[in-house]
Amino acid sequence: MSENRRTAVSMAVVSTASLMQIVNQFLFFKVNASLYGATAETDPLWFALAIPTFLVAVVTGSLSYVLVPELVARFEQAANQRDAWRLASFVGLLTLLASATISAIVYLGAEPICRMLFAEKVPGQHALAVEMLQILSVQVLLTGGISWAQSVLHSRHQFAVAALGGVVGTAAGLAMVFLYGDRGIQVVAWAINLGSLISLIIHLLPILSSLAIPYADASSIWRLCSVFWPLLLGAIFLRVSPLVDRVWASQLDPGSLTRINYADRIVMALLTIGTSSLSLIAFPQLAEHLASHGKQGFSRHFSLCFRRMILLIVPIAIGVGVFSLRIVSDLLEGKMFTPEDSHVVGLLVAILMGMFVGASLSELLARGFYVLGDTKAPTMIGVIGLSLGLLMKYALFQFVGIWGIALGIALHFLLTTGILAVSLVRRAGAAIFEGVGWYLLQASLASLLACGCCFLVYARSIGNTWVAGPVGGVAYFLGLLLVHNAEAKQVLRAISDRIRKGFRNSGGHVSAE
To answer: 352, 321 in Cβ contact below 8 A?
Structure first.
């Protein structure tokens, strides 16, 4: 199978799984919003979840950037297969010990952590926050294991298994909330744990039989640590922003923290299309191209990945930004989630489209640095961008409250993306962005056509977002064909070839009979 075709097939599989996971997550949000809305009861849950999420991002969030290139290099050589599995097992053991220790610390220290960070606005909120944090403390262990397993699977180009784990996990959590969610907000926390546990099991199944006695030689440990420590130190600073947002939001009216959380979660769900379906696939492939063809091969493949990223994120950013109020209303409004909640969350989502664009592009740009063996530059750029972003966010928060948080997040990500892009051009040359401007124009024109079709769906009450979304997707693809986009033509040819092949096989079978 050719490189382009393998990439396209992997993208199709992971994109489909990502879409299914997004649907599950949106349904999860819908059930939670219907049961509990945006109230003082929900604030402790989303505050508590932000703490293990932050800790996992610091400890294991950068693991794939370090481990994948090392394992790819070893797995590509048949003689090093055994060493690759021993190294993977060694890193897995360290991840298990570190994650389990942090989970225990969070569980035992839940009360002082909440007393220090959570602003209680309603009596009983503090006790509920402590309970939520104790339940969710195991997320550090579960999600840390998932991060390690994903790194191993991605180094083996087994993207479908990792994607399947996320889909089944979120579906299990959704089922639990749907069946038992009315028994208390604690059920939602346990459902999150259940989803992570099932996802971890699915990630581990293809790996367990190949694990070996954990071992890593001194040179490998030194090489991994030299790459990992800048990421670890940077992550402590870079990943703290969402936690700071929750701490600030807890100081506002009850329900504000939940509203910013819903908006953030919607955008993060959309990010799985921009990052999981392409950046994760591109990472090991960029490492291969650099190893086999040098910087020229790296630049050529990076430009291809960046153009494909443009085709993915532009329609989402434009479409969601234009129809955010209607999307949130259709997805979340009902019972406890009021029209006022929909209006606020919808506007927050529109503002956070800046975060969506910036995070999607900066993720790919950062991986470009990591493949080139440079973890310090993107970390320092991220620190500088976040420092400026926090200052802007704090200043805006003082004047416009929750809106300042969202605007500061968007500005931070866009600023960081711009600096990363300029720096990577200096490192790898302008060829990494070859053809990007033309793809951006094509994607924008096709997105406008898609928005027009979605407007007709909404205006004529043909259906809601669940109808407008697929209609817009089809219109966008047709728009790309109208502007003669090369990627859309390639997808169409692949579909046509598959149909013709199936028809010929069917015809041959009939003739034989």
So the answer is: no
